[in-house]
Design a protein that fits this description.
This protein is mainly alpha-helical. Helix content is about 80%, strand content about 0%.
Length: about 150
Amino acid sequence: MVLDKSKRLAKADVLPLLRRGAAAVAAARIGLGATALAFPSIPARPWVGASADELGAEVFGRALGGRDIALGLGALAAAGQVSAAPRTTAAWYAAGALSDALDTAVTIAAWNRLPRVTRWLVAASAGGAAVAGAAGAVAALLSDRKPD
């Protein structure tokens, strides 16, 4: 019985941390999106290099900025609503995680054509955000379950 109680205690300690991590990623996503809307070459340059200053890259960067703002606001709104079902919060965190996982995948697919200096930073930050979002989604779902 003591072991079961310690398992519950560990779960009670870890799940809120995972959810806060996912919320932090959502907040950072809003900041990144706002930056991309206003100054699209700033977040794009580490990812695509000098071509970030071209018109097509600027338009695309602004579009991705809008995506990030929407995903971040949706996640934070769901997480902040007491009446929101944990599944809703999990869905928003998972949507951001999927977006970040796909960003990581396309970065890896283009690895040899990306700037050597920053490609690791881009892959690590997108991959880390994907992991944090997925962990937050799982934590949101687990926090909705009755104790074992």
